[in-house]
Every structure is written in structure tokens, then in C-alpha cells.
Design a protein that fits this description.
Elements lengths: L2 H20 L3 H14 L8 H11 L9 H18 L10 H15 L4 E6 L6 H9 L3 E9 L2 H13 L4 E5 L11 E7 L8 H4 L13 H11 L1 E12 L8 H11 E8 L12 E8 L11 E4 L6 H18 L4
Parallel strand pairs: 1-2, 1-4, 2-3, 4-5, 6-8
Antiparallel strand pairs: 5-7, 6-7
């Protein structure tokens, strides 16, 4: 058994035990058991025989000796199991291959810097952000995470603690004012849908002319507001982002505020229906040292399991960086 498999087994068995004992959903129990592992103690007021069973399970791994990536992957597997049983439609996780690929792009974009700050304004259970942090080759001075879903944020917090990341977490609606200073980089798997609070959306350039605005449009604007001049944003976007009836205001705002550096379409095989397909969009906020590319990076990514095709695409992306950003 690998360390990831052993860690998942402990997380899973202890979550099932706590879920049955306390009569709470699996994901809530997972957050609790993760906190137990971090604190090296059983924190729930459960019977002594349950405490003994939990301690026996926890003794099967030494969490301090595991690598951050082993913990992230194990925690991710447990979250995925819990999400299958959950009914909330917003409980979806950024696919692992996509998270790791965004980590690769983050490293390319931050390679010239000695250190960076990073924000995920819709962190969910934290898989994307921690994957990027674990792969970071540039020192991350500070990471920030925001989400309106209390349970998902708690899972992200627990997972981040176990991986030893000093991330600051904010439980709030990301479209409302954020008490976070501008950062060097933003990564975000944009939640898709309409934003319910028209009075708050009214303060945004990308708001709908009438009716409800798209939350993902508002979040792009909010993200660029919290990006330093010359900073980069890496978004997971729906393929039809610029085709909706609200796309005009978004295009105008982006062209005024940032330059599209790249659009990388994910393989359609990753999605149940073409309607749900997504791409990776890279933006650079305008600034003194920011320059629009002579040619935008446009890529159709192959299946991540096709190693030869992926190597060819990575070579193509590396060549683009050498040509467009020789200083990186």
C-alpha cells in the first residue's frame, strides 16, 4: 500500500465511524477527523470505546512524516467519496490533472519572482489551491482562500493544515468586499451560475443590463480588482464564457483591465456533456511591466493520460513562453 492509500484508508474508516456515531454526513465527519489528526487528539465528545477505535485507526499513519502531496491526494479521494453521497450541486472538485496542470502554469508565470502571494476566491474544498502550493517552485509568502460554503471551507482549512500551508481563510461571499490586499497571482475554478444579490452586483462593471448577473463574470472582475498591476490570474472558465448575452460587458472590462495571455481548452472527454466543457484562461493585469503577447497562447489540450501528446503540448507551451516572455 502506498502512503496515499494508507492515509485515505485512515481518513475513510475514521470518517465512517464518526459519521455513524454522531449521525452527521460523511463530509462533516471527514473535517472532524482531519482536525483530530492535526491536533493529535480526539476532539469530539464520543464514548470511550469510540475514542479507542479512532486512536487505533490514527496510529496506522504518522501524519507528520507524510508528504503534502500524499495527504492532498488522500484527502481528495475522501472528499470525492463524500461528494458522491452529498446532494449539494456546488460540491464539485477541480479534477486532479487540471489542478496539477494549473500548478505547472503558475510556476511558468511566477518564475522571475523571488516570492509571490496567491488568492483563490472560490476555494471549495481546497484541492486546486493546495495542488498549486505543493508544486510551487517560487516561495509563496502568503496564500488566501475564500468561500461562502462553510463545510467546503472547513474541509479546505483542515486539508491545508495537514499539508502545513499557512493559508488565511475567509468565510464569506467573494462578490462582496474582501479584506485582502492585492496579490501577485489568482487561481480559481469559477463557480458558474447567476448571482442572487442584484444590489451588490450593481457595483460591478460586468453586471447584467437587466435581471440577474452571472456570478462567474462578477468573480472575474472582483479577482482583477484584487490583483496587483502586472499580476496573473488563472481561471477555469466555461467554454461559452464569451458567447452569452452578458459577454459584451465582460469583454469590455477585460480589455480595459487586463490582457488575455492564453486560452487552453480542456479535452471534451473530461466532461459528461459538451455543454459543461471548460478551458483555462490566463490573464495579466495591465501595468508598467505588463505586455500583451504578440500572439495569444491558444491550445486544445489532449487527454492528460496521453503522455506523448501531452509532452508535445508542453513543449509548444514552453516555446511560447520563451518567445513571448523571455524574461520569465
Amino acid at each position: 500500500m502506498t502512503n496515499t492509500e494508507k492515509c485515505f484508508q485512515v481518513l475513510d474508516d475514521s470518517s465512517v465511524l464518526l459519521s455513524e456515531t454522531e449521525d452527521v454526513p460523511y463530509l462533516e465527519a471527514l473535517a472532524e477527523t482531519g482536525e483530530n489528526l492535526f491536533q493529535h487528539a480526539v476532539l469530539q465528545p464520543v464514548r470511550s470505546e469510540v475514542v479507542k477505535k479512532l486512536e487505533d485507526l490514527y496510529s496506522n499513519i504518522d501524519i507528520e512524516q507524510l508528504k503534502a502531496e500524499e495527504i492532498r491526494k488522500a484527502f481528495q479521494l475522501a472528499v470525492l467519496k463524500g461528494m458522491k453521497a452529498a446532494t449539494q450541486p456546488n460540491h464539485e472538485m477541480t479534477p486532479d490533472a487540471v489542478s496539477l496542470f494549473i500548478g505547472y502554469l503558475f510556476n511558468k508565470l511566477s518564475s522571475e519572482r523571488d516570492s509571490v502571494t496567491i488568492l483563490d476566491p472560490a476555494v471549495g474544498s481546497g484541492n486546486l489551491l493546495t495542488a498549486v502550493l505543493n508544486s510551487a517552485q517560487t516561495k509563496v509568502d502568503q496564500s488566501y482562500a475564500v468561500d461562502a460554503d462553510e463545510l467546503l471551507l472547513k474541509l479546505a482549512y483542515v486539508s491545508s493544515n495537514l499539508q502545513k500551508h499557512a493559508t488565511q481563510f475567509f468565510h464569506q461571499d467573494s462578490i462582496q468586499p474582501l479584506l485582502i490586499d492585492p496579490v501577485d497571482c489568482i487561481v480559481c475554478d469559477l463557480p458558474i451560475g447567476y448571482y442572487p444579490h442584484e444590489a451588490i452586483a450593481a457595483g460591478y462593471d460586468v453586471r447584467a443590463k437587466s435581471g440577474r448577473s452571472f456570478a462567474h463574470h462578477l468573480l472575474i472582475e472582483q479577482s482583477l480588482r484584487h490583483l496587483k498591476d502586472g499580476g496573473y490570474a488563472i481561471f477555469l472558465i466555461p467554454n461559452g464564457l464569451f458567447e452569452s448575452d452578458q459577454a459584451g460587458a465582460l469583454k469590455t472590462f477585460i480589455s480595459k483591465t487586463a490582457a488575455i495571455q492564453g486560452l487552453l481548452q480542456l479535452p471534451l472527454t473530461m466532461f459528461k456533456k459538451e455543454h459543461y466543457a471548460k478551458s483555462i484562461m490566463i490573464l495579466q493585469k495591465h501595468g508598467e511591466n505588463a505586455h500583451p503577447p504578440s500572439q495569444t497562447l491558444l491550445v486544445h489540450l489532449p487527454s492528460f493520460s496521453n503522455e506523448r501528446a501531452m509532452q508535445s503540448i508542453v513543449q509548444q507551451i514552453d516555446d511560447w513562453f520563451r518567445k513571448e516572455k523571455p524574461h520569465l
